[in-house]
Amino acid sequence: xxxxxxxxxxxxxxxxxxxxxxxxxxxxxxxxxxxxxxxxxxxxxxxxxxxxxxxxxxxxxxxxxxxxxxxxxxxxxxxxxxxxxxxxxxxxxxxxxxxxxxxxxxxxxxxxxxxxxxxxxxxxxxxxxxxxxxxxxxxxxxxxxxxxxxxxxxxxxxxxxxxxxxxxxxxxxxxxxxxxxxxxxxxxxxxxxxxxxxxxxxxxxxxxxxxxxxxxxxxxxxxxxxxxxxxxxxxxxxxxxxxxxxxxxxxxxxxxxxxxxxxxxxxxxxxxxxxxxxxxxxxxxxxxxxxxxxxxxxxxxxxxxxxxxxxxxxxxxxxxxxxxxxxxxxxxxxxxxxxxxxxxxxxxxxxxxxxxxxxxxxxxxxxxxxxxxxxxxxxxxxxxxxxxxxxxxxxxxxxxxxxxxxxxxxxxxxxxxxxxxxxxxxxxxxxxxxxxxxxxxxxxxxxxxxxxxxxxxxxxxxxxxxxxxxxxxxxxxxxxxxxxxxxxxxxxxxxxxxxxxxxxxxxxxxxxxxxxxxxxxxxxxxxxxxxxxxxxxxxxxxxxxxxxxxxxxxxx
Length: 556
What we know:
Layout: H1 21-28, H2 32-36, H3 42-45, H4 61-70, E1 80-84, H5 89-102, E2 107-110, E3 122-124, E4 127-128, H6 131-151, H7 159-173, E5 178-182, E6 200-205, H8 213-216, H9 220-228, E7 237-239, H10 245-258, E8 262-264, H11 265-268, E9 269-277, E10 295-302, H12 304-310, E11 317-323, H13 328-346, H14 354-363, E12 371-375, H15 376-390, H16 400-404, E13 410-413, H17 419-432, E14 438-442, H18 450-457, E15 464-467, H19 482-494, E16 507-510, H20 514-526, E17 534-538, H21 541-550, E18 553-555
Parallel strand pairs: 1-5, 1-6, 2-5, 6-7, 7-8, 13-17, 14-15, 14-17, 15-16
Antiparallel strand pairs: 2-3, 3-4, 9-10, 10-11, 12-13, 12-18
């Protein structure tokens, strides 16, 4: 059995020859996940200070390049779009991959973090890699990885570096037509940042904000500089809408230095919101009927280089689209995805057209981004009420919802863990459920801006705010204590965020576990009369994953 590949641990390497999955399991004593878990995991332990900066303290990309050489330079085998940013990376990747698939291309997508299983991070054709396929992939290349780990000092190679190399190798072996790659941290020293210039169809930088500040240099300018590190000389750069002028200035200056053509996504791809469809959060939903199938409709107008690539030179076009991903911020992400799709078309993927763009935007989904669910038993009650209404209503007196039983609250799962994403969550929730009572469940990593996030969430005027903890990447080292979050909530109150509405004050509670916190939130909402309420679980994608893993929720 292999020893843990931690600093100072000398593990006997696997043979460089290909192993069968069964032989690999015998050699390692477990699955690919067990083997990967033996390498240092910075998501779990925390990223060292300045590790994402272009400095002596930064991660060593030379180590990553040597590993890729050992497994056959897979990053040269497919055109790529590389996506960095503080917010919106995952949504942009999901929409762009869906556009590629709608155009008939075999698309690879590499994302992080995952929601329920690490397998989600490596996807081909819209489907995550199966556990047996990951085991086989690791079995084929574990020998090379082990040899590289020995060469680079035993514990130098990280979990993320190895997983990135495996993703790139998977895309080569699966002969993808293109790959969409999400940066893990920052950009300039991220393990993903080894793509050859000739393969880079576009570097995309979504909204830059304050997250992972210690690892990325501290200031908004330093964070932007780290993310600008994915730009390559002469290659197109798609800039999403930037909330910070200082960040945009850094990005534009770096693009100019490298001679990169810049596509301002929010200028070349404009969306005019046209509402949501079909149904709302009240009406049938509030009285126990079927779940609202929320969509946001918008008219998309193209101009500039993006219109020229997708329609023709000098052409302008408008197109009605319907998105499953909700919120004004998702329209900004959609703009970045469409502009990047145009770059891919210019790179030779000429089946990408307006129809593929519209179909991809409408098909794209992403767990943990305003994900609407309900408990299984509530879904049954709601379905029964809807069926009774469809059969002509109330033969025996009383409302159909009363006779069928009143379902419990909706559940919204959102990984919001920055000020910007918390504000977007609050805005999107009130657009979808304008008057519904809310019970908030908050669990976060220790290194986030807790007070600022709480200040944004207080604008929801929840009837209850319940604080709890969640393991981060499977470990407790980075998890914020519930009391720490409660103190941040109270500090936000002192600053005036979210004053009581209608004379109702928020009950502030601490629960020992996430499942207990969600159940307590349901109890708090049951005490409210009138409209069906909403339990909001937020603060971390790890919290979203834990809820989906341990509670009987069904998607709406």
